[in-house]
Amino acid sequence: QVQLVESGGGLVQPGGSLRLSCAASKFFHDGISWFRQAPGKEREGVACMSKHDGSTYYADSVKGRFTISRDNAKNTVYLEMNSLKPEDTAVYYCALKEYCGGTVYDYWGQGTQVTVSS
Q1: Cα 86–90–91 angle (5° rounding)?
Q2: Which of 45, 47, 72, 109 could cross-link to 4 by cystine, CB 3.0-4.6 Å?
Q3: CB count, 10 Å around CB of 58?
Q4: pLDDT tens digits, residue range 76-101?
Q5: Are 79 and 34 within 8 A, CB to CB?
């Protein structure tokens, strides 16, 4: 059984920054990722890191603003979010999928709310 626990969400003004954390019991899969879901919108994959080689992938909507990273010793993955925009408002989930190119998430956490508003 995999447990993923996100933290670090909150309210931030446009242009601000947040860092989300995800503590995992174990990273079984190669694709360590973050996705988000806003009310009335479809789930959107935000970022993914390959456990195998550390390659990273980002959605076009966050490229250049968000950075995914991992602390192997702590079994923790991070999402550094800069230059936040109101359209980044969503519940953010840490998730595992078989590989970054896949579309199926096999495990995810309870989510953490990010609200970008003045």
Answers
A1: 155
A2: 109
A3: 17
A4: 999 999 999 999 999 999 999 999 99
A5: yes
